[in-house]
Amino acid sequence: MTIATKLPEHPPLFRTGEGAPPLVVTGQPNVGKSVIFQLLTGRYAMVSNYPGTTVMSTTGVMRLGGHPVTVYDTPGLNSLMVASEDEMVARALLLGPHAAVLQVADAKDLARALALTLELGEAACPLVLQLNMMDEARERRITIDVERLAQRLGIPVVPTIATQRWGIDRLRRALPQARVTSAVVRYPPVVAEALAQMEALVPAQLPARRARLLLWLAADEAVKAPL
Prior knowledge:
Layout: E1 2-5, E2 23-26, H1 33-41, E3 45-49, E4 56-64, E5 67-73, H2 85-94, E6 100-106, H3 110-122, E7 127-132, H4 134-139, H5 146-153, E8 157-159, H6 168-174, E9 183-186, H7 189-199, H8 209-217
Parallel strand pairs: 2-5, 2-6, 6-7, 7-8
Antiparallel strand pairs: 1-9, 3-4, 4-5
Helix pairs in contact: 7-8
């Protein structure tokens, strides 16, 4: 698998106001998602069960541009290839229609986070990448060229230290600019050919169609039913 980049061709897909899409907060476990959720939503939070599961969900409301936006705090997710009920619930939200995504990443483990970023790109998720724990990264002498990373991915990339509220205002301003990443994943010919053949058979309006087909090719039984 190789990665190529292209210049962004589309305007931001995340719109505030009436009919605005929800914002789904995702990322690997222990990257500060719940802290970010609390900082964004304040006291407007509700805890309940996801329908049909024992997984508890936290839903809140934040205001962007003077308008309310629903925010979902999801269980930790390493990949769209899920292994637990918690991860399956998180994936269902990410693969659903009309959602924008805030991916919270541990700045100390950028490579691992970017693997998920590319998967979210295959799901055509309008995305903002948040590099959290920047103070811990600096302590380990890790330097990240945030501007260059944003250019390579074609999405907003925002460094933060959530525990100090550093960068949170910048993050809020970046959310309406969520975009589908312009990074392109190129697969081996056998995978690319199979994917092209399947795409010709599946309705174009299926949400996250390409990501679902890739999961199907990877023998993910849970994702086959909606196809």
